[in-house]
Amino acid sequence: MAHQLIVITGASGTGKTTVSTYLHTHYQVARVITHTTRPMRAGETNGVDYYFETPTSFAQNHYIEHVTYAGYSYGSSYEALDRAFAQSNYASIVLDTAGAISYVQQLDPKPAVLFLTLEQPHVLKQRLLNRGDEPAMITQRLQSDEYRRDLTLPPALAGVATVVTNDKWPEAKRAIDQFFQQLQVKQEAEQGR
Ligand SMILES: Nc1ncnc2c1ncn2[C@@H]1O[C@H](COP(=O)(O)OP(=O)(O)OP(=O)(O)O)[C@@H](O)[C@H]1O
Ligand SMILES: Nc1nc2c(ncn2[C@@H]2O[C@H](COP(=O)(O)O)[C@@H](O)[C@H]2O)c(=O)[nH]1
After folding, report:
1. Guanylate kinase-like domain: from which residue to which, for each copy (predicted)?
2. How many angstroms separate the alpha carbon of residue 47 from the centre of ligand 2?
3. Helical H runs in 1-134?
4. Ligand 2 centre from 183 Cα, in Å?
5. Which has the least CB within 10 A, 28, 37, 43, 138?
6. pLDDT of residue 156
7. What is the mean pLDDT of residues 85-113?
8. Rounded to whole angstroms, how far apart are CA atoms 172 and 164?
């Protein structure tokens, strides 16, 4: 069976990591672990949530794409993608919208894309506080160009991404179940050709 990548994108706090964990737990979708220079949050583990890097070690990896987000470097490596697909034919990766656009433009076969959004984006700050993020980090993030940019579906992803509203988890979960089950049907149909 061909490999299928699911790119999960959207603004900070919209629930990208929550969706990636849900797909892993309920559908055994492997997670692509990306690299970052940002400091670890409480509860995060190196090699599980990210590969945490220094600026020097970050520069030594081979990236499909890399970005600066709210002052820190983030990148997705070829090695991490291979590691995920060694575990499962389905893998998900959590990216900012610049990364999602790079993947859609570069990857063959093209990834399936989920864009997460909220009808009430003012609750995002509270979600980041509830998650335990440092208040100073939240302020820096909410003031960043990247955070504001990712609140809106970029034109390059219009017609490509499935938009999921995550104000209420039970509704978001239903939309994600439908998205994943349709993806499985499409994959199986392509296999049968
Ligand atoms: N529908 C929801 N209702 C309330 N809280 C939610 C919902 N979905 C996710 N959360 C919570 O919001 C916080 C942010 O979610 P998550 O870490 O998944 O977001 P993210 O998009 O990955 O953020 P970032 O880009 O900053 O890493 C977490 O504490 C998560 O448990
Ligand atoms: N383009 C990429 N974006 C990435 C990558 N890894 C994570 N991210 C995105 O960065 C922001 C901030 O993440 P956080 O964990 O510090 O909250 C978020 O939008 C992630 O989706 C990557 O390799 N490339």
Report:
1. 3-188
2. 15
3. 16-27, 55-58, 78-87, 97-106, 124-131
4. 24
5. 43
6. 98
7. 97
8. 6
The residue to which tokens 């990148």 are assigned: 75
pLDDT tens, position by position, 141-190: 999 999 999 999 999 999 999 999 999 999 999 999 999 999 999 988 88
Looking from the CA of residue 76, the nearest atom of ligand 2 is 23
Contact predicate 163/112, CB 8 Å: no
Out of 83, 95, 142, mutate this one to test ligand 2's pocket (max ligand atoms within 8 Å of CB): namely 95
192 has a pLDDT exceeding 90: no
Question: In the prediction, which pLDDT does 190 show?
Answer: 85
Atom of ligand 2 minimally distant from the CA of 98: 1
Both tokens of 178, joined, read: 């439908």
The token pair that represents 103 in the structure block: 């993947």
Q: Which ligand is nearest to the CA of 16?
A: 1
Ligand 2 geometric centre to CA of 191 (Å): 32
Which residues line ligand 1 at a C-beta cut-off of 6 Å?
12-18, 94, 127, 130-131, 166, 168-169, 172
CA 114, CA 74: separation in Å to the nearest integer? 19
Tell me the pLDDT band of 101, cut-offs 50, 70 and 90: very high
Which ligand lies nearest to the CA atom of residue 19 in the structure? Answer: 1
